[in-house]
Design a protein that fits this description.
With 257 residues, the protein is α/β, with parallel strands linked by helices. It is built from 9 helices and 7 strands; from the N terminus they run αααααβαβαββαβαββ.
């Protein structure tokens, strides 16, 4: 029997030590998703392996791209990071109440419309040196997210029960979102507003053809963007690869915005 989670992490080039540390965290997370799924409508399946592939590994497929964006921010204009931490109402605070996250640096990654914590929870587990803010409007889902962060030991996670439209402007370095509704002019303005100048939006999407159609509709606001093909073990390399295409759409907010 294939151990999709373990083999998938290996295929994504996580080191053996990381895999050993991550496996029990993700096992716990999947079990929590299954436990609360029927009540909170968190994911579209109760199958363990499907969650491992379609949700956990899919979320982790963008880790290298996100680290590349972090590197660009870190080696670029450092004032962007100061703006995020000094002016933000989303300043990270430990989920356990101590409020000391100095070990995690100043980069803030926001998971907008987090829902069941995807991609934010898997990314926070795999990237413990960075602060993650999970933005979710439904209070019962926020309670679920806080519980997951606590039992998984994710001290770099903060949960905010707030609508995306109410996130303070210029408060997040990188915004990620997955299984989000199509980007329209209203939503892209909201998302760009919360990003620091020079920061990034990173949207998990499917087929490039649909991406092109979607981005054409907002070309007056976003004239330039980048599409990075994502590799998801057991999903994009399956026999029906053409049907399971995964991509990351990257949009940078102008420094002058």
């Amino acid at each position: 029997m294939t151990d999709y989670l373990s083999e998938g992490l290996s295929k994504l080039n996580f080191e053996d030590g990381q895999i050993k540390s991550l496996l029990p965290k993700f096992d716990c997370y999947i079990k929590e998703l299954n436990l609360f799924n029927s009540a909170y409508n968190l994911v579209n399946t109760d199958d363990y392996d499907e969650i491992a592939v379609n949700h956990i590994l899919d979320s982790l497929s963008a880790v290298n791209e996100l680290k590349s964006l972090i590197e660009k921010l870190s080696t670029g204009n450092s004032s962007k990071n100061n703006l995020a931490t000094e002016n933000s109402t989303l300043e990270p605070k430990s989920i356990h109440g101590c409020g000391d996250n100095s070990m995690h640096g100043s980069i803030i990654i926001g998971d907008i419309g987090s829902g069941g914590g995807l991609p934010g929870i898997p990314l926070a587990a795999a990237m413990p040196d960075y602060n993650f803010v999970l933005v979710e409007r439904m209070s019962k889902r926020c309670a679920f997210l806080e519980n997951c962060a606590a039992i998984m030991g994710l001290s770099n996670v903060t949960v905010k029960n707030i609508e995306a439209e109410k996130v303070k402007p210029d408060s997040i370095d990188i915004a990620v979102f997955r299984a989000f509704r199509p980007l329209d002019k209203k939503m892209i303005k909201t998302l760009l507003s919360m990003i620091v100048p020079g920061g990034f939006l990173a949207a998990y999407k499917a087929k490039k053809q649909k991406i092109t159609e979607e981005m054409n509709e907002i070309s007056s606001i976003v004239p330039e963007y980048t599409v990075k093909e994502l590799y998801v073990p057991f999903l994009t390399d399956s026999e029906d690869k053409e049907q399971r295409e995964r991509n990351l759409v990257i949009i940078q907010k102008p420094l002058s915005a």
